[in-house]
Amino acid sequence: MRAIEVCRTHVLGGHADVCDGCGFTRPAYNSCRNRHCPKCQALTQAAWIERRMQHVLATHYFHVVFTLPHELQSIALRNRKLIFDLLFSAASRTLLALGNDEQRLGAQLGVTAVLHTWTRDLRFHPHVHCIVTGGGLAGDRWISSRQKYLFPARVLSSLFRGKFLDGLSRAYKRGELDLGGACDALVGRKAFGELKDTLYRKDWVVYAKRPFAGPEQVFKYLGQYTHRVGISNHRLIAFDERGVSFRTKNGKQVTVSPDEFIRRFLLHVLPDGFVKIRHYGLLASSNLRTKLVTARRHLEAVGKTTNTIPPPQKTLRERLLALTGVDLEICPHCGGQMISYPLNEPLSEPGTAETTRSPTFSDSS
Q1: pLDDT band at residue 316 under the 50/70/90 scheme
Q2: Pairing, β 141-144 against β 206-209
Q3: pLDDT band at 171 (very low <50, low <70, confident <90, very high)
Q4: Could you count the other beta carbons within 10 Å of the beta carbon of residue 171?
Q5: Average pLDDT over the chain, rounded to an integer
Q6: How far apart, in whole angstroms, are the C-alpha atoms of residue 92 and residue 162?
């Protein structure tokens, strides 16, 4: 919270951009760069997309979402890292196991998974978005899946449920679960077993969205998910005596008290060092120079190529210009050259020079 409060203010220091022609002066305060800050994700997201585009294969892709049932919410809140790790593991192993099944595809898929923990009204709702290749590598050949179908949703749901609950049971037996607070009723084996029985009888939600139009759209689309936080600035509507109002979905909005708004926002702060974007199968780091290269070669042999090799890495200025159309080195008034000077104090006394705050870019930029 401290990082977000002081982001792009004089507290973090910065510099002043001064036009060498008209004297126009613009303070540019430093960003906090906290991964939960709504203002600091756009450039990071753009850089991530540029890197990942190098690994796109010339095939169709699927978007699959794995969601934890609400009965696990209290355990997840007290055991975030363990439960989130289990969620990633169960989802990826489900996809890879079905891909390797000779009765289905018989090949190794490529999977990129991203963790989200929120609903549109900021309630706690852990789920992972998985982007899955529409086919995989089997030895020395590429096997393509059907264009509009990956695996049956009920099979995905059943296998995901089994793998997750098996991992949860193992963690319980090893004493790794924190079952204090709201979870204290689950300490006993009988109560924990009853919870498992309830969860085994429940259909878990696994949602397979429509496949992408083409490989070039995959990671640009995924970029919308990778660096998103619980709420973006453009969804905030008002803060008044009633509380904080923000947009949810389908044109609706909700108003909550300031304390409740902050409580909900902080539900989605990840454990320190937790990796929320992970790659599996062909896209695992150990396979990028081996199996992924082989898969691309086989696809190219049948005439399937992509135009996704990015240009040399962009500078901050170039990336910002591409995203927003703002060139930090050009004066917005006279077109002169902007020169940067250290800014030790906020510009509260601009004198005769016209001043303005530097542009603030949200994650929707």
Answers
A1: low
A2: unpaired
A3: very high
A4: 17
A5: 84
A6: 13
Phi, psi angles (nearest 5°) of residue 301: -65, -25
Q: Are 149 and 64 in contact (CB under 8 A)?
A: no
Instruction: Give the model's confidence band at 318: pLDDT under 50 very low, under 70 low, under 90 confident, else very high.
Output: low
CB 330 within 8 A of CB 338: yes
For the chain, what is the largest distance between any 2 Cα atoms, rounded to a whole number of angstroms? 77
Q: What is the pLDDT of residue 143?
A: 93
Residues 222 and 212 sit within 8 Å (Cβ to Cβ): no
Residue in 10, 57, 107, 29 with CA at minimum distance from that of residue 305? 57
Catalogue the E-assigned strands of the chain: 14-19, 25-29, 61-67, 110-118, 124-133, 135-138, 141-144, 206-209, 236-240, 243-247, 253-256, 277-281, 338-343
At residue 14, the pLDDT reads 84
Strand order in the sheet with 236-240: 236-240, 243-247, 253-256
Helices (H) and strands (E) in the chain, counts: 10, 13
Q: Does the predicted model carry a pTM greater than 0.85?
A: no
Angle at 166 between CA 160 and CA 169, to 5 degrees: 140
CA gap 280, 64 in Å, rounded: 14
Given a contact cutoff of 8 angstroms between Cβ atoms, the answer to whether 140 and 107 are in contact is no
Give tens-digit pLDDT for 48-100: 677 777 788 888 899 999 999 999 999 999 999 999 999 999 999 999 999 99
* Residue count (the chain): 365
Summarised one tens digit per residue, pLDDT across range 17-39 is: 888 888 888 888 888 878 888 87
Question: In which residue are the tokens 């890495």 written?
Answer: 313
